[in-house]
Amino acid sequence: MRDYARKATIKGFRQGHVPAGVIKKMYGKGILVEEVNHIISHSVSDYIRDNKLRVLGDPLPNEEKARTIDWIFKKNLNLNFKLAL
Question: Which of 8, 24, 46, 57 could form a disulfide with 18 if both were Cys (CB 3.0 to 4.6 A apart)?
Answer without folding.
Answer: 8
